[in-house]
Amino acid sequence: TPAPWFLYNWPHNVVLEISSEMGLVNALIACLLIFAAFKETARQLLDKAFEHKNLSRTVLGLLILGFITFMNTGDINDNRSMWLYMTLPFVIRVFSKSNDRNPNVEGKRFL
């Protein structure tokens, strides 16, 4: 029979899982990565000259949904999408900077 809703085999919180399996230092590093992703997204959205705000808004939504899932379900491997979402703000920033340096390649704009 299935276990009651309050009994599970893992913590259902990836930060707690990281700290229990790899130590407190690694859990703090994971928290810093999450914070850095949210901070970079906020920086992009608050920058009036940033051209890719729609992408940043989409990434913010993905980060919020991914973070909720990250804190409530599965384990480290089940939340691969959140690890992807945490990289997207930095990828958008790099592409934005590459567009500033080289706006036209064969007459087409990147992104």
Give the secondary structure arrangement, pairings included.
Layout: H1 14-22, H2 24-46, H3 53-72, H4 80-101
Description:
The protein has 111 residues and is mostly helical. The chain is 67% helix and 0% strand. It is built from 4 helices and no strands. It has helices at residues 14-22, 24-46, 53-72, 80-101. α1 (14-22) runs antiparallel to α2, α2 (24-46) packs across α4 (80-101) and α3 runs antiparallel to α4. The longest helix has 23 residues, at 24-46. The N and C termini lie far apart (51 Å). The relative contact order is 0.13.
Radius of gyration: 18 Å
Low-confidence stretches: none
Percent in helix: 55-70%
Coarse structural class: mainly alpha
* Sheet with the most strands, sense and barrel status: none
Throw out a few tags for this protein.
111 residues, 0% strand, elongated
Q: What's the short story on this structure?
A:
The protein is mainly α. It has helices spanning 14-22, 24-46, 53-72, 80-101.
